[in-house]
Specification:
two-stranded antiparallel ribbon, mainly alpha, 208 residues, transmembrane, single chain, DUF106 domain-containing protein, EMC3/TMCO1, transmembrane helix, MJ0935
Length: 208
């Protein structure tokens, strides 16, 4: 599910006009305020996704299906190890039923994700970059791909560029190592709170 979401996001952002435009003058210029506000928004979106999942997915039925398919797989594996042909044949008769049940549950999982993706894309492309800019927090440690590294800071230092019509200074978002990119902060907050939110809303999704 996560891989599909990331792949589709990368694909969509290849189209003209869908690449986020990060502001150079964020509404929350200091890192503390931007980190707190962005975290609150991320938690709110995570909560909205959980409530949407609860509304569109039969969680209890999904848990029952997972229990039944798990027991079937366990028995089938043990039967193969023991080379119990009679038991294998009996379990094979239920294979198509187990696969159908698993497919139905996977489709239920996809439904809230598809409903969530479009508004999420719009927020990521048009709203958040214009509010927060490209970095929103400061981490005491450098996390690859999620925070600015020393090389990022070196590459983003002001460079004087002159052409025939104007003189301007170009500068990237990284000023010190450890600055957390906007998307990286949302990712970290989601990982930190998704389990808590799922437990509170009773929307924990079993793993197939």
């Amino acid at each position: 599910m996560i891989d599909l979401f990331n792949w589709s996001e990368k694909l969509v952002l290849q189209f003209p006009g869908l690449t986020p435009h990060y502001t150079q003058h964020p509404i929350f210029p200091d890192m503390f305020a931007s980190a707190v506000v962005a975290a609150i928004i991320a938690i709110g979106l995570n909560l909205a996704m959980a409530l949407l999942r609860r509304k569109t997915t039969n969680i209890e039925k999904m848990k029952t299906v997972m229990k039944e398919t798990g027991e079937w797989r366990k028995k089938y594996t043990e039967a193969i190890k023991k080379k119990d042909k009679q038991l294998i044949e009996e379990l094979k008769k239920k294979q198509s039923q187990m696969q159908k049940m698993s497919m139905e549950m996977q489709q239920q999982q996809m439904r809230p994700m598809m409903l969530y993706m479009i508004p999420s894309f719009m927020l990521w492309i048009f709203v958040f970059p214009a509010i927060f800019g490209q970095t929103v927090a400061l981490s005491p440690i450098v996390i690859p791909y999620l925070t600015c590294s020393a090389d990022n800071v070196k590459n983003d230092t002001p460079i004087q560029t002159t052409n025939s019509t104007s003189t301007e200074i170009k500068q990237g978002p990284c000023k010190v190592p450890g600055q957390v990119f906007l998307w990286g902060w949302f990712l970290l907050v989601n990982f930190a709170f998704s389990g808590i939110i799922a437990k509170v809303t009773n929307t924990s999704i079993p793993t197939f």
